[in-house]
Amino acid sequence: MSGKFIVDLTTLNKYLGKLYFLNKELRVEKIDWTDVQYELTRTRNSINNIKDEDILIESKEISRKTGNPLALCDTMPIHNTRATTVTTPDDQGHQIKEFIAELNTELKKKLNDEFNVRFDSKNIDILRAIDALNAGSDTYLVLSELDVLLNTFSCLNIDRSILELKIERAEVDYCLGLPINPKSIPNLTTLIAVKNTISTSTASVERAFSSMNRICTKLRSTLRPERLSDLLCISLNRDVVDFLDLDKVVTAWGNMRNRWAKV
């Protein structure tokens, strides 16, 4: 275990500890974005207050417990006359401090940049508005919360007053136990469609790239783009493919005159 690894491990542990409560707020079933903003501010302050000296002290403690020297390189004996350069313990201590300072500064910068992008005030308002379209939310269909979506997606030309009337009518029908016809509330249906198309993560995209790497291996590098696209479609929609009757698919393909036609 090198000294660099010990420092990396210690720094990672400190940063993950500061991010714990923010992560906890984002993992609850009903996210309160006001609490998230408060926790984000607290997390920012905690991260910015991480000191190089604290990382160094904890790194030395791990080094002592594991018996591994806290050095970026092996110590060279002073009497080794063949060595062109000699690294003394003082030099190594200075190198460790410089490494910690550089690592800590870089992590703070990257995390703050990430916070600025992901938790921009406008993004928070949009997420709060999207939450108002979830039936389990405390702000479900509160028009004041939906105003952000109406302003952001002004190209949809949704009239606020008409939307308010349609929501009130839908609420009355719901209280009376009457079925709600989606065609009678097209504006609200449009907003819900917008909500469903906004991706909350990049997991699906990353999953697609992983599937592509599994399909297009070195032994299958000559796959045509069309064939690769078809195989990817099958792989990504395997839950639907499982219900297909493969015998019927093969029979339909066999009855085709043009064998190159898509099934």
Task: Kindly describe this structure.
It comes from Paramuricea clavata. This is Zinc finger MYM-type 1-like. It holds the Pfam family Dimer_Tnp_hAT. One of its GO terms (molecular function) is protein dimerization activity. InterPro entries: HATC_C_dom (IPR008906), RNaseH-like_sf (IPR012337). Helix 1 packs across helix 3, helix 5 crosses helix 6 and helix 9 packs across helix 10. The protein folds into three domains: 100 residues; 75 residues; 51 residues, no CATH class. The two termini are 56 Å apart. 9% of the residues are buried. The chain is mainly α and 263 residues long. It is built from twelve helices and no strands.
Oligomer: single chain
Percent in helix: 55-70%
Element pattern in H and E: HHHHHHHHHHHH
| Percent of sequence in beta strands | under 5%
What is the strand tally? 0
For the CA atoms, what is the radius of gyration? 29 Å
Mean pLDDT: 79
Shape: flat
Span of the ends, CA to CA:
56 Å
Q: Assign the structural class, choosing from mainly alpha, mainly beta, alpha/beta, alpha+beta, or little secondary structure.
A: mainly alpha
Tell me the layout of helices and strands.
Elements: H1 3-26, H2 33-48, H3 52-66, H4 89-118, H5 121-131, H6 143-152, H7 160-175, H8 186-197, H9 203-215, H10 225-236, H11 238-241, H12 246-254
Helix pairs in contact: 1-2, 1-3, 1-4, 3-4, 5-6, 9-10
List keywords for this structure.
263 residues, 3 domains, mainly alpha
Summarize the structure.
The protein has 263 residues and is mostly helical.
